[in-house]
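Anyone? Bumping this.
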Amino acid sequence: MSVVPPERVWWTEKIPKEEKTWITIAIIWGIVMFIMMPLWHVVGKQNPSTESYTTTPAEFMKEADAFIAKYKVGAEKGVAVVEPPVGSDIYMVAQQWNWYPVLKLKKGATYRLHLSSLDMLHGFSLYPMSTNFMVVPNYDYVITITPTETGDYHVVCNEFCGLGHQMMVGKIIVE
Amino acid sequence: MSEEEKFEPRGTLALVFIFFTLFVLLYILNWIWLSGVWELS
Amino acid sequence: MDKDFRKCPITGFKIHLPAETLIKINGVTAIVALLIGGIMALLVALTRWETIHLLAPLDYYMFLTLHGWNMLGFWIIFFEVAILYFAGAVMLNNRLAAPKFGWLAYVLMLAGALITNITVLTNPAKNAIMFTSYVPLQAAPLYYLGVILFAVGALVAVLLFLATLYIAKKEKTYEGSLPLVVFGALAAAIIAVGTLLFGAVALAPTLLWSLGLTPTWDALSYRIIFWAFGHASQQINVTAMIAIWYLLAYLTVGGTTINEKFSRIAFVLYILFINIASAHHILVDPGVTTAWKIWNTSYAMYAAVLASLMHAFAVPGAIEVALRKKGYTRGLFEWLWKAPWSNPAFSALILSILTFGLLGGITGVLAGTEQLNIRVHNTISITGHFHGTVAAGTTLAFMGITYYVLPLIFRREVVAKTLAVYQPWFFGIGISMVSLGMMAAGLYGIPRRHADVTGFGGAPFAFDFDPTGFLFISIMGIGALLAAIGGALYCLIAVGTLLKGKKL
Amino acid sequence: MAKGKEAQEEIPAMQRYFDNMWLLLIVSTLILAISYVGWGVWEALNVPAK
């Protein structure tokens, strides 16, 4: 019984066949799920990046501002629109409570996206197909991205970052 | 059916198999959904 | 018999009276926390339900912060402390090692809970920084003090439980191994020790920092250490819930595990591997390697998932075998149809198993897979996942056991028995809709912890989410109303029984 | 409940480990401290500069 001590020696009890069947299936399933993760790094095309560097808000802002000055093609609603060359390093800055600049990318081209925050933790959430990364101050997170569809994308902040959190929306345009 | 078999948890085994099937289906479905996002590495 | 003890006329347990008083006071405090957290839950849910959108952002963030603390912290942990004292003292016919420390723990926890609630309510603009309290967001020192007092109090209670087990063995109040339910409670307590230790490591420096004594510290390291507390504390809930499953299977139908070894191995797998799964929170962060992520989030190759799957067999199996022995042997499922569904503790148990496994368990493993996490991290799907595990699974199990605690410990006959039959169904179905609605809405990118997903507070790049997402959000809203009815019924029945129930 | 024959049987080593709550406590806390917290924080603190 579950509420009184078991028999003196319970380790040698035989496990019945239903339980053995179940435990075998469960172990195999666990191994399959475990293998899927490294396997996807080899065969899959959607893996979280582990390329990151230490930085500071001032340093990151300087790099991002240089990037914006170099490739700026216009402005939308007061935010710089930037069209970087294919294959280049691109920057998106998170700060209370906006994302900048607006990025203009080419479908099928690969970029190295640098993400960092100038103040709090923020969450990079790309809409509409929900792709999410954490944006951590003092870390430059480099994600190699290849947009696969054209259209207007939005970037929502999905980590609580203070009382204006809900106002934090950015934009990426893919042509 | 023998006297002993009557008391075996065969119903539970059936229930956990249904649960397991659902688990595997959702697992596969999630990988398919994942393939729809931008290429990332 | 010693004057400090009474013999329970129903179960035959020797009950230590100082332990009984502590069980009562912790249990009642838990239910008060559930009531407060529940009112906040309703306010939060009615805000996220976009058709109503009740609260302004500041109020929403304030109530969301406190909903988190009152439910995940205060309701669950006060109740678990009561369970630990019950398992360590009553179930072993033992005395509580040092009731004075039980009172110390209680006072610390209560003070912590009150301070946290008051600091957030009086100055939400400063202190509504969410359950996670991520640095560099900074609250006032009192906020961190409240949280730390609560965690230290809980740690004292856990150590008191371990001391109680120690004297039970020394004074030979039982022979051989611990009863399975007590072993489950021990597993929860062991998981709690590591959890609470790292809670202190994460939050004590934040207190110093908010006092201005130390500079800010690394946001990523805080996240890693915080989740050794934040997610591992939910593993305490899982383990305590499963111990309660075994207890309820016994109390409701006389079920007992088919194999002691099988169930105990599953508990030991939890003890060893479940806590490292906290890495689920760091899957899409910079700074950590793939190897660390895969090893830890797989709970060391899914050893802890294996444990859950084993319990998911052992508990229903125990119920089935017990009912088959009562003569319900026809076909595969006669035992299930003829089970004692009119007993609210039984329906709560079954609903707890179903919701925990189907809603919380599966989605937890999915969202916790390295690559799959990219799609759901910090979306409302995650909120849906833990409303399946802790809000549905753990809460239902605790509600179920309440229907036995009231007559056996408080010695009052449960009032409004007909209402009680429906109570778990209202709550169970309601919270399942909340969980499913959130999980589906999250797949459309709708974020968690967001005060305005339709207007974005007038932000320049405001846009519209896919309306299908909002359809699922409405399902969450309707579910929240049903769950609120179930939760209110539970509080009413419990309080009504304490005040008006016939003395036994 | 022990049967006569089992009463003399020696308790298997694994059962004794399972009954030793201090051993379980130490191993559990160590695994969390090393595999998750230690390894993770070490990696976070050793992120290279650009």
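Late reply, but here is one note on the structure posted above: The mean pLDDT of chain D is 88.
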